[in-house]
Specification:
three-stranded antiparallel beta sheet; 99 residues; ADP-ribosylation fold; 8 strands; 3 helices; alpha+beta
Length: 99
């Protein structure tokens, strides 16, 4: 398993649990893919985009199980970040922890 992390605000996580599918946050929808981070990148993502949000959760996903719709593309600082070009299903979440 290759773990990757999707950070969600509390309301996004509650909606995802209810709908069992997550099409993306407003930023994801704007960009056309779901933004995901590696475990090493997640703290920087949390600090940059979620610093003022309480109740953020970190969803662990298995990159190997997400199939060809997961692309590794250059982003912040030229690092390769995982981007998912389809909705995420609740059954693809391996673990959930407070961020």
């Amino acid at each position: 398993m290759t773990p990757i992390i999707k950070l969600l605000r509390a309301d996004e996580w509650a909606q995802f649990q209810k709908a069992r599918v997550f099409a993306g946050s407003p930023d994801d929808l704007r960009d056309g893919y779901i933004h995901i981070s590696t475990p090493e990148q997640a703290p920087g993502t949390l600090a940059k985009w979620f610093a003022d949000d309480a109740g953020v959760v970190a969803l662990t996903l298995d990159a190997d199980a997400l199939g060809p719709d997961l692309k590794w593309e250059p982003s912040r600082g030229g690092q390769l970040f995982p981007h998912l070009y389809r909705p995420l299903r609740l059954d693809e979440v391996v673990d959930v922890k407070p961020a």
